[in-house]
Amino acid sequence: MIDITLENFESDLITTSMQVPVLLDIWAEWCGPCKSLGPVLERLEEEYAGRFMLAKVNADEQQEIAGQLSQMFGVRSIPFCVMFVGGQPVDGFVGALPAEKIREFLDKHVPGEGEIASAEETTEAEELAEEGDLDTAAAKLEDALAKDPNNDEARYDLIKLLLSEGQVEAAKHVFLPIAGRATGPVPEARPLAFSRYISAVQAARQGRAPQELEAAISANKRDFAARFELAQLFWAASQPTMAMDELLEIIMRDKAWNEELPRKTYVAILEVMTKPQPKPVAGKPVAGAPGAQDKPKLEIAGKVEITGNDPVIDQYRRKLSMALF
After folding, report:
1. CB 17 within 8 A of CB 54
2. Whose CA is closest to 80, among 90, 93, 69?
3. For the chain, which residues make up each domain, given as ranges?
4. Is 81 a catalytic residue?
5. Contact yes or no for 153/122 (Cβ under 8 A)
6. Suppose 239 and one of 75, 82, 114, 234 were both cysteines; which one would form an S-S bond, judging by CB atoms 3.0 to 4.6 Å apart?
7. How far apart are CA 54 and CA 52, in angstroms?
8. Which of 34, 75, 97, 145 is the catalytic position?
9. Three-state secondary-structure class, residue 27
10. Residues near 301 by Cβ (< 8 Å), separated by ≥ 6?
11. Which of 100, 115, 109 is nearest to 47 (CA)?
């Protein structure tokens, strides 16, 4: 448990919530329900064993913090608890709720033990893959998915690893649980990109040899079918920039060829190459606080730190933009 002031709000609450959910308890000495709620929250923090952190702020001593959060959620009473995730206040509750109700609230935002273990194994697997230990990396990713089937990044990492080794059927099996998200009127970008990646590797195994394709292109620069097939070969061979170079040649000559398939494939390659950034979490109204969604965002909330972009990805995004306009 940590006590929050204006001085440590950024470092001890916002920054910590980027790594683990933080529940902020707004209380006061004169508040009877606050005194009954406090010990319950402390016991729950111990029970959850590090899966969330409890923070407390004295409403009388830190009026700016308490006031802005109360205004944001439309709450005028204490005890008032606010959950911070990813650097932002995302949900809350008012009053001295019983432990079982607080557990229900926590379980909406706090990762389960399996999720945490799965995320740790995914990170370990990525490091092993970079070191070249692909077999151990694959085993860890499979275990990560067994612990948390909703761990998308473990799933995507495993698909990439399997495709890099030519195991198309195994990759398709791993992709199957999320295949529905790649279809429909508004497919999700990342599942769609991996669907195209799997299709490219499968097509590369059944298509013409590189020498045959290069000869066809040399004879006719507008042999877009051969050039697209060559791009798929490069992508399947883990040479995405060479694949995008071939796709750019098609786009610059005929943007609409084959229902814009070269552009769609180019975008899919960029998506597969890109490591997803943490998503900002929008504030939610507190249960039982009507009109909270119309309140302003917390002004003293910290900014989400974004990892620097990959210069190669940035370069190829610019190339595509220039080719299209």
Report:
1. no
2. 93
3. 2-110+281-294, 146-277+310-324
4. no
5. yes
6. 234
7. 7
8. 34
9. strand
10. 14, 87, 88, 89
11. 100
* Active-site residue (options: 13, 31, 44, 158): 31
pTM: 0.72
Note if the bond before 79 is cis, omega within 30 degrees: yes
How far apart, in Å, are the Cα atoms of 19 and each of 116, 136, 151, 307?
11, 26, 16, 14
How many alpha carbons fall within 13 Å on the CB side of residue 322?
Answer: 8
Pinpoint the alpha helices (H) of 109-239: 113-131, 134-147, 152-164, 168-175, 189-206, 210-219, 224-236
AA letter at 237: A
Bridge partners for 82 per DSSP: 24, 92
Domain spanning 2-110+281-294, CATH architecture: 3-Layer(aba) Sandwich (3.40)
pLDDT of the chain, 325 residues: tens digit per residue: 899 999 999 999 999 999 899 999 999 999 999 999 999 999 999 999 889 999 999 999 999 999 999 999 999 999 999 999 999 999 999 999 999 999 999 999 998 888 889 989 999 999 999 999 999 999 999 999 999 999 999 999 999 999 999 999 999 999 999 999 999 999 999 999 999 999 999 999 999 999 999 999 999 999 999 999 999 999 999 999 999 999 999 999 999 999 999 999 999 999 999 987 544 333 344 444 434 444 333 444 333 343 457 999 999 999 999 999 8
